[in-house]
Every structure is written in C-alpha cells, then in structure tokens.
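WP5 quarterly update. Target: Fucolectin tachylectin-4 pentraxin-1 domain-containing protein. Source organism: Tigriopus californicus. Length: 606 aa.
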Amino acid sequence: MIILSTLLTLSALVSCCNDPLCVGVQCDKTAVGKSNEKWDQCGVDKLFDGKKTADSTGYNYYCSWPNKEPWLQIDLTQEASIRSVTIHPRLKYETRITDIQVYIGNNAIENFAKNKLCGTTDSVMDKGVKTVTCKNGPVKGRYVQFKREGVMDITELEFEFGCNDPLCVGVECDKTAVGKSNEKWDQCGVDKLFDGKKTADSTGYNYYCSWPNKEPWLQIDLTQEASIRSVTIHPRLKYETRITDIQVYIGNNAIENFAKNKLCGTTDSVMDKGVKTVTCKNGPVKGRYVQFKREGVMDITELEFEFGCNDPLCVGVECDKTAVGKSNEKWDQCGVDKLFDGKKTADSTGYNYYCSWPNKEPWLQIDLTQEASIRSVTIHPRLKYETRITDIQVYIGNNAIENFAKNKLCGTTDSVMDKGVKTVTCKNGPVKGRYVQFKREGVMDITELEFEFGCNDPLCVGVECDKTAVGKSNEKWDQCGVDKLFDGKKTADSTGYNYYCSWPNKEPWLQIDLTQEASIRSVTIHPRLKYETRITDIQVYIGNNEIENFAKNKLCGTTDSVMDKGVKTVTCKNGPIKGRYVQFKREGVMDITELEFGFGCDDCNA
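Structure tokens (predicted):
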C-alpha cells in the first residue's frame, strides 16, 4: 500500500505548503449539485454525509440517473486543487460506477469538454469503490463533473485536495519501483513489498524479503525523485524483532554512495510485534532511492511510503555542513561540525567534541545561513560537567549576536543538576530565524546540539497531557486516571488495575479534555496485555464539542480490525485536526493502557 495522503468526505484536506487551493471546501456545507435527472431525494448534503452504501429500495442516500448519458456536476463554489476523486456505489448496483469520466475545471457543464479529464473509473465489475487519481497530478477547478454512458448510481463522493507539486504525488511503487539488495530475495520482488499483504508466516516465501548476512541492505528505486515524509515497515510473522534498528536513507545516490543521502531516521529498538514507522525528523526528504540497512538479519514483508510537500522552513538546514559557529571564547578544537557530528558526550580530558567557554557570561551563536523554523533545541553536556548546561537561555531570530535581545527567547534550560541532556521547547510554538544563540552566566560546556525544525503554529505544541488533561467516561475507570494514560507504562497484565482503563458495557466511550485547543495529527492506542483485540475498530473524534455532542466533532479515523497484538495508530486522514476534546468510542468492551498524541501544524507539515 502506498500512502499518498488520504481522502476527504466531510471536511477539507489541510493545506500543503499553506496554499488555499489545497484546503478545498467543506463539501457538505458549500457545494452545489446539478444533474440532468431526478435526484431521488438525494442532494449534495447526502453525497458528502459519510454514509457510503444504500440498499436497492432506499432513496435517502444515493443519486440515480436512468438515462443513456447521465451527468452530475458538483459546484465547489470556489476554485480548488483536486488530486483524486473516490466514488462509492449503490448496494447491488456496483457496476453502475464503472467507466465514469471525471472532469475538473472552471467551465460549467455546458462546456465540460473545455475542462481537464482527471481520469476514468476502471471497467472492473467488482463491488468496491472506484478512485480516480488525476494522472498528471492535481487539477485546479471549481466544477467536478461526472459522465457515464448508461445508468449511473452514486451514494457517496470523496475529494482529495492537494498542491499541484509532482513531488507530493509520489509514485505507484507496486508498478514502477525497482528493488535491489545484497542477498537472495526469497521469491519476493518489489511488487510483493507493495501488495498490501503485510504479514507472512515463517514457512512461506511469497510475501517477505529476507537477507541473512551480517549487514543486509535493501534499495527501492522509485525511478523518479519524490518527496517522502515517512516510511512504515511491516515485520515477518514470528520474526518481528528483525525490523528493529533499521536505518532508512533517502536521496538521489544509489546504494554504492548511500552515505551521501539523508538519514530519514532509524526504527526503534523496542522488540514488540508491531510495525515500525520512521518519520523523517526534519520534514520530508527528496530523493529517488529509499535504502534500508541493518546490522543483523532483516525481514520485511510490506512497505508503506507517505509522500508529502517539502517546505524549506520546515526542513531546516544540514547543520553539520552549512551552519557557522561564533563565540566569545576559544573553541577548544571544536567547530560547528563537531557540535552536529552525533557524538553526544565527551570525557573531561578530551578536546575533540566539546566547546567550553570559561568566562563569566559566555555565549555561542549558530548561524544556519538561512531562515528556518525551530520548534526545540536539545543540548548535550560534557561528561562530568553536566551542570554547565543548566540555565542556558536560547534565543532565535534574524539578528546577529550583537543584537540578540531583539530576537525571541525560545526558552531556558532548567536548573536541575542532573546528568542528562536539556531540551528547550519554544513555549509559544516554533520560532523563525537564521541565528540560534546560547547565553549562560558562568562556564558553559556543550558537546552536541540537536535542532527540531517545524512550522510556526502554536497549536503544534499541544499540551502536557499527564499534567493537564482531564478524563471522563461512561464507566468505572478501574483505578486508572488520566495520569496513568500518559505515564509511559504501555502494557498491563490481566490482573493489574494500576495501568489500564476498562469499560465493560456495550458501547463504551472515553473523553480526554486537553483543557485547551490543540492541533492533533495522530493518536496511538496501546492495548491491555492478553486483551489486545479490544482496541480494534475504535472511532477517534477530535473537536471542541463535549461527549454529548461528539458527532459534531471531526472523525480523525478508526483503528483497524486486525486482531494482532500491537498498538494501533490512527493518523487523521485529512491532516491534523484542531480541538480541545479527544473522544474514543467502540461497540463492545474497550481496554486501553496508554495513549500517545501526535501534535502537528495545520500547514506544510501536515
């Protein structure tokens, strides 16, 4: 499966790189329908109400045209950029959405031929939905028109809005990507890695790729440059630990020169049974090749790529290559390349990997050479001198050190004299600037810096759930409060009551009140041990309406129905959703041990 992005039913897809055309419209509220036939009691509000099937005797939720050449026009009332259109059939009459032509443009139906043909639904007479992805990328237009020769029955429409950037579209990996590795593929080609079959037993050879040598690698050649936001790796059944610690590189250099590509990220070391998703830490990465490397046996059964637009402010800079350092003291043989070389500690006698300033008010300035949007800064201490990174003020802006006070104070490291790193998260959201400046009263010792880049939206910061969120449900919580849902303890055995929340009634619900509005990109739900199936098919709503009016909130998504033992992550299908309340509903018993919220901007990072 390839995740290009997701479809739109009730609300508009968020903007990509902040272009109003990407936002689309709220079809259920503003779109206007017109056709050449009676609508059978079905207006535009029904075409976008989320009810995707209708039986053959019902007239409420479908639109039928019995003439030879029926047509339907949706007037979005404003120009939008549309990437794909999904058409849902009427139950028992699924063949009536084959061979539908979809036109998009600014010409009304009388002049439809002047608009662009996005594409045509296939001729396969199956019972599923039909999706038409505009073959040359998103098409701009006010009108979306449907034409078919023969009866046409439609029960629901979904529009996917998106920027007209070919890099966002990605590629059809199952058709175009080319695989290459340093080992036998066990009868598994690239088509198998993208065939949607995500697990394979240990004796089957059809659906996994295994490399038994010490340092296996796999390269996926997309055959063209694309912008990739994240990569999801599915494990082989019974060998799930073999996708831990996989490094994922993306770039335009083939495997022989993989080190010249960018490291998107590394899968975690947790030996669970779930999938592993690597989200490129500094935003989407452009490249033709996606390369996977691991020390030890690597077993992969399925890959998913999430394509996305590349906004330079979100991406940041390659600090180890372009940033320029300046300070008011000798650098102790430590340049900017050392501050970003990944070597995060240094003993007290080593001079290679730290920067020390012994004067009373030392300062350090990092010049990124271009403006970037910075969400947080992590500072690593020098070994045995960890207290020298307490109370460091971090400023960000476009003013050089002489005028640092004109920049914004991102924040100050805490005063706790522990031995760990210190992370300063800009308290009012990401700050834009070319310079990052560090000031401290007293000696300052730094061995490594990490910058988290991100778009400037205060809603991205989210809330400290373990401290501020308030829980409410329709059942006893089994001694589990909100603090337990966010305490990081992600599993609980069947006899323990401390770390899970269980609701035994037929239709349980849980509401998390964040106490303030936030922008939420995804929600991860951890199951109770031995009762993992009780987090399947959970609907997750987000919005500013309390549980009594949950239906007025937006449906972020629903956990899948796969009865495995892993966590379930719901990524809001149309991008981050703003809201104060996060609500969980399931038909049947619901057992949750831990929640994780992915906060995110409603802009180019979406």
